[in-house]
Amino acid sequence: MGKSKVIKEPTMFLAVLPIIAMVIFLSFGYIFFQLPPEPLIIMSAIVAGAIAIYLGHSYQDIMDSISEKIAKTMPAILILIVVGFMIGAWMVGGTIPMMIYYGLKIIDPQFLLITAFLVTSVVSLCTGTSWGSAGTIGVAFIGVAAGMDANLAAVAGAVVAGAYFGDKLSPLSDTTNIASIATGVNLYTHIGHLLYTTVPSFIVASIVYIVVGLNSGSATAEIPEKVSTIMSTLDLAFNWNLLLVVPILIVLVGSVWKKPTIPVMLISSIFAMANALIFQGFTLNDAVSSVVGGFNISMIKAPGFDPNTVIADIPRLLNRGGMNSMMGTLLICFSAISFAGTYSVTKSLDLIINKMMSKVKSTGSLIVTTIITGLTMIGVTSNGQISILMPGEMLRDSYIKRGLHPKNLGRTVEDSATIIEPILPWTAAGAYMAGTLGVATLSYLPWAVLCWTGIIFATIWGFTGFGIAKLSPEEQKQMLAEIEGKQETHSSKVAG
């Protein structure tokens, strides 16, 4: 018989060293030198792997752990790819352009703030992209505000809040899908649970924007030409009818009926592609190209439409979607999963979590600990995807052991990372919003009400128990069995 491996337990220093390495790599590489995050995460995984081998684990142990985590997240990763497929289909079918067109059409200068918030929310919800919504519709609203001599910081805050409302709740959003992946929760279950903190934040924000708007004295202001130009260009490029809304209804009905996510999205996409062929005059090649590589305005053949003469907002608004558009997000996911798989081999995470959880005595304090973890991750790494994946990996088992559904974790991580990112000046999102809207991050921060009220409601619900989902005894038993199964597999590998 072969000699048994001698596995050493990690010290607290060795346990936290890979996380420290990740913080250092991302802080200096990503923030100061603008290096892409993927190789920096891989470098962190190399540090974790070196520690694992030092403690007696084999290279095969590391690869098995990574493979196991990829296998578990593969269904959610497939959803992410289908999301890109569906965005491309909704674009070429005219569904997303129609939502943008009618959203801009309802602008009333006296209600500029609430309109900016609501329209950007709808566009972001339909497109799943906060950056795209802010960079197009948001810029249009800033133009409206400038023409009315309105408070630009307030309008920018409303735009950012609306953009991240949609980014948080849209089944097309990469961060929403990543949170579902990280916590092992069904996508629509995750979105439904987000409503407990997002709806109150939405209501508070709406009240603020309505009250401020009614007292702004801007009822006589005019809508600037840029908004009219966007609307007339969209009206020229696409043909509107009620059937363009059907792809959205398919997704909504599928969500309410709790149907499998991928088939629902594919059915919605097929209907949208049919709209493209029947109503928009696109060819089958255009439709297929859009769902694979993304929609491009060069595909539009409408009489009088010249893609070379449209204003810059049009391609920025319409050129999006396709499965290829998700490859960057998937690469970050695979890199983070590789780090998590390598790191988990040594059970270092258990050591850290047990230390953290020793001070957690209630559900409220667990929620607060999660919030602090999310805020720390987004503050240090400046990357929304990583700030969701890592707390999800670190804290999921702790929630299950306390009888709490992992969807509580997913919601709290989104409250403390996804919608906090754009109000921090040093993050990529904060810098993008400030640069795109022309308003400093700290100036629009107070007005981005939805972005900072989420953690307030999350904390209150944590201590009152409202909106906190508990696991049934059967669900907890099943999830605990999965956790114990992973631990037994790890122990058997160590013994072997």
Describe, in short, the structure shown.
The chain is mainly alpha-helical and 496 residues long. It has helices at 12-32, 37-54, 59-93, 95-105, 112-127, 130-148, 152-169, 174-183, 187-214, 225-237, 246-256, 261-278, 284-293, 313-318, 327-344, 348-357, 363-381, 384-401, 406-418, 428-437, 441-444, 449-464, 473-495. The chain contains 23 helices and no strands.
Structural class: mainly alpha
Tally of contiguous helical segments: 23
Query: What's the order of the H and E elements?
Result: HHHHHHHHHHHHHHHHHHHHHHH
DSSP, total strands: 0
Overall pLDDT level: 85
Q: What is the radius of gyration?
A: 24 Å
**N-C termini distance:** 10 Å
The fraction of residues in strands falls at under 5%
What is this structure's SSE topology?
Layout: H1 12-32, H2 37-54, H3 59-93, H4 95-105, H5 112-127, H6 130-148, H7 152-169, H8 174-183, H9 187-214, H10 225-237, H11 246-256, H12 261-278, H13 284-293, H14 313-318, H15 327-344, H16 348-357, H17 363-381, H18 384-401, H19 406-418, H20 428-437, H21 441-444, H22 449-464, H23 473-495
Helix pairs in contact: 1-2, 1-16, 2-15, 3-8, 3-12, 3-13, 3-15, 4-5, 4-10, 5-6, 5-7, 5-9, 6-7, 6-20, 7-9, 8-18, 8-19, 9-19, 9-22, 11-12, 15-18, 17-18, 17-19, 17-22, 18-19, 19-22
